[in-house]
Write the structure tokens for this entry.
Amino acid sequence: MYNFALQMPTKLYFGKGQVFEMGKDIAACAKKVLMVYGGGSIKRNGAYDDACKMLEENGIQWCELSGVRSNPRIESVYEGIRLCRENGLEAILAVGGGSSIDCSKAIAANVHYDGDAWDAIMKHAPQTDKVLPVFTVITLAATGSEMNRNAVISNLELNIKTAIMDDRLTPVATVMDPTYSYSVNAFYTAAGIADIMSHTFENYFSKETDAYAHDRLAEAGLLTCIQQGPVAVKEPENYAARAALMYISPWVINGLTRAGKSCGWSCHPIEHELSAYYDVCHGAGLAIVTPAWMRHILSDATVDKFAEYGVNVWRIDPSLDRYEIANRAIDCTEEFFRSIGLPMTLRELGITEKDKFEEMAQNIDNAFGNAYVVLHKEDVLQILEACF
Amino acid sequence: MYNFALQMPTKLYFGKGQVFEMGKDIAACAKKVLMVYGGGSIKRNGAYDDACKMLEENGIQWCELSGVRSNPRIESVYEGIRLCRENGLEAILAVGGGSSIDCSKAIAANVHYDGDAWDAIMKHAPQTDKVLPVFTVITLAATGSEMNRNAVISNLELNIKTAIMDDRLTPVATVMDPTYSYSVNAFYTAAGIADIMSHTFENYFSKETDAYAHDRLAEAGLLTCIQQGPVAVKEPENYAARAALMYISPWVINGLTRAGKSCGWSCHPIEHELSAYYDVCHGAGLAIVTPAWMRHILSDATVDKFAEYGVNVWRIDPSLDRYEIANRAIDCTEEFFRSIGLPMTLRELGITEKDKFEEMAQNIDNAFGNAYVVLHKEDVLQILEACF
């Protein structure tokens, strides 16, 4: 394991009605904020009304940036920056899922930057000393962005989806109210589960074989998804299941299961290409790519880790042959995603042509230097073919 | 699950040589510090020399409070307060295990308090606005105090062992260098493992049955101890095993597995009586009390949780009768503690008379109001008898 520094300063307010607790934290650093959200879902699930009431009660004024789409676009970032500058806004409040949060972070990083925000994003770090504080009210268990330093932004004109990262982008405080996720439909609930599991896999499958505590914690994340995910899909208003997913999602991506491990990601770069070209649902794309990636990299070098996964997560009989365990574990993974209603081919996701595969594979030919198994263009092509 | 707020601001520096990274954090808030430690072990394992060098390199002066014993005494707290006041010290650096850290926190809470420090401890909270920042270099995986807000202090004159708690006592930064724990002997390594497991049990066995993510994370803590604990006991210089124990220990007691659960502790109050009367090793006392407590509270109301524990942690066949699973799980727990070299009776621990049992049980007759199973004086007596 490598040496590392790890800090998770985000204050979590967890539970029904907890948004009102966060008011004092926002008031402590801002009199005027930008509220960032997507479509109408936060107006149906109560999060919008509660957030407005909380701001009012604390004497905080706000402007709104709405219409942030999944795979948040640079155009929304530009719009948010403009609103902050014109109105002297001092903090950002994201209300929604990962897209609203990531858009908020990218805005926060660039309000006080004189250059083009897209340049800062392409440099993967804020290009200014002054970053606005970010607060979040999460309404979907998926991204983990509510408790980490990363934001992923898409530029559909350039077919680029990439990340900006900085400790100062880590939310100051986050509200996790499971009841806000009651209105998330079965498909997006399932896609969120696939996203959480993929974050976990990306860190779990690593060249580091001796990060025992990390890997048991990662398995706890996977088990939570596997056990409570189907409950949330079937019973959207099951508080305990929604709570379990909402609680676990940041911990598999905030460093707890990763710090000190060499963890270049594999499925996310591939999925980011799919989203950049076809604007598919991120979690659904991950669910398709993951089992294909697992099968592609299964070898004598990786079979022990897959067997560990199979025994510890899927409770497969450890006395079986290790390849048997590994293959069963991968089958279980695919079957699980299918069982919660996710499409398992790119065609089901609406990608009916393979004509962009070559270009996408070329784009990320050099993206896997630090990965569990280094992938080259030909590997990515084979994985995409298997997903088709 | 209850609503909760959760924040873990401590910055962790993990790995060999990482103590030198913490210098800048201390220098940012203090020019003169109190270094608190126990006996000679930190001079043998390199932690003392490294800490001194780190302070020197950062131009930080220091005084030393040494001789802090396990079950740290109020007398050491008084002495530390005196040193801080007389020398104008601005922060505390604990180098050692939980005792040095807890003593440091109690000092930090009272340097600027005009009253008697013991009064503040009996009130369980600082009685002043100004609390000194605490930094730690942990040399033993056990307490979790390096990342939480609690400190337990003993007053042997009064036979009282109790806690002072406050967010401001949470260490600002903590160094976890697994090589510093190489010199911990097999007995104290094992006692530390029992301590980590007991912290986990105290939160895991709760009336809350729907904290799914919490409980999978707790099981990850137990599995880490069960799998890597025996390795560390047998191979004291096994970096990966020492690292796993050091990394997992704070997460089972900093709120991650507890927040939102109703978790009145049971074994700790009983063990605190043993320590207060007989000054026994805390972890060893817990290892003895735990299986006896488990057997005492096993009933129709608790058997399902014990069966869950047995299946998920000890991998007992889930198709067995649930009492069979529960009893096997408790046997496994006891057998595990014995296998890592811990005494399993109070007599082995040097407590050869039962004459204080009545008094100890009386002391904590009202300590279990919020516990998984409420214990009364008679229950504690029976548990102590079973431990004898």
Q: What stands out?
A: The longest strand of chain B covers residues 4-14. Chain B has a mean pLDDT of 96. The two ends of chain B are 37 Å apart (CA to CA). Chain B has two domains: 11-180, 185-387.
